[in-house]
Design a protein that fits this description.
alpha+beta; Ribosomal Protein S5, domain 2; about 40% helix
Length: about 260
């Protein structure tokens, strides 16, 4: 059984200040994502494009479902570069396994299991929520709001940033909580992809997490009349209202994860 989940790019993030506190964010789903194939097997093993690879959140979600399988992950976006590829693979694997083994789990339960697997593995926080619904989504702390868009996005990437390391940095978490909620509120007053990029730019200034590569590429976009932000977390810049400034492009996906 095969399933596809869109990628997701988070431009704003407000992690909880303390355990049990609300979190917030603003993200969008991308048409390019991850395709997963699940085949019953005596024990769980994961490959990426046919090559063996450790993939903890996928292994965790299969264990939560109570099945073992051979899982092949075929990414359409760079792995570990801020496109939520691990979340996409986990959610797609859950959907495919549920169908392959005729488990009968409700979609909401599969979503919860996928999110728990991501959080436990330290590879993501809310990517699967975006990938479940599609579109442009945001949460100021009181619930998810959603907007469908037909927009092309360009991007360039120079590597990954470990989500687990960022979330383990207490100083960053405190700053990101304060700045993130402020910027998400401003974005929510005028929700658009350009607004997200502009607010992401402000978030980077306040938190100081942008690398020289990110700063340089954002300036290139602004010089061309567009707006750009950083994918959290990856050394990746996304841009809107430009054409051929960056080498790669995709579109907003308004469709969530699905069986193929």
């Amino acid at each position: 059984m095969r399933a596809h989940a869109p990628g997701s790019v988070t431009g704003l993030f407000a992690p909880p200040a303390e355990e049990g506190d609300p979190s917030g964010g603003a993200s969008f789903a991308t048409e390019d994502g991850v395709v997963v194939e699940v085949v019953p097997a005596p024990e769980t093993r994961v490959t990426v494009e046919g090559e063996p690879a450790p993939f903890e959140p996928v292994e965790r979600v299969l264990a939560a479902l109570g099945v073992t399988a051979a899982v092949d992950v075929r990414p359409e976006v760079p792995l570990g570069h801020g496109f939520g590829a691990s979340g996409a693979a986990t959610l797609a694997a859950a959907l495919a396994a549920n169908a392959e083994f005729d488990l009968g789990w409700e979609r909401e339960a599969l979503l919860d299991a996928s999110q728990e697997a991501e959080i436990a593995a330290g590879t993501g926080y809310s990517d699967v929520i975006i990938q479940n619904l599609g579109g442009l989504l945001w949460n100021t702390g009181g619930g998810v709001e959603r907007l469908e868009l037909d927009v092309r996005v360009e991007y360039v990437t120079d590597g990954g940033i470990a989500t687990s390391e960022m979330l383990a940095d207490e100083q960053f978490v405190r700053t990101a909580n304060r700045v993130g909620f402020d910027e998400i509120e401003r974005f929510a007053a005028d929700p658009s992809l350009r607004s997200l990029a502009e607010r992401s730019r402000s978030f980077l200034r306040e938190t100081g997490i942008a690398t020289p590569f990110v700063e340089r590429e954002i300036e290139c976009v602004e010089d061309a009349g567009g707006a750009a932000g950083m994918a959290l977390f990856g050394e990746t810049v996304f841009a809107v209202d430009v054409e051929d400034v960056f080498p790669e492009g995709t579109r907003i996906s308004n469709e969530g994860a699905r069986l193929l």
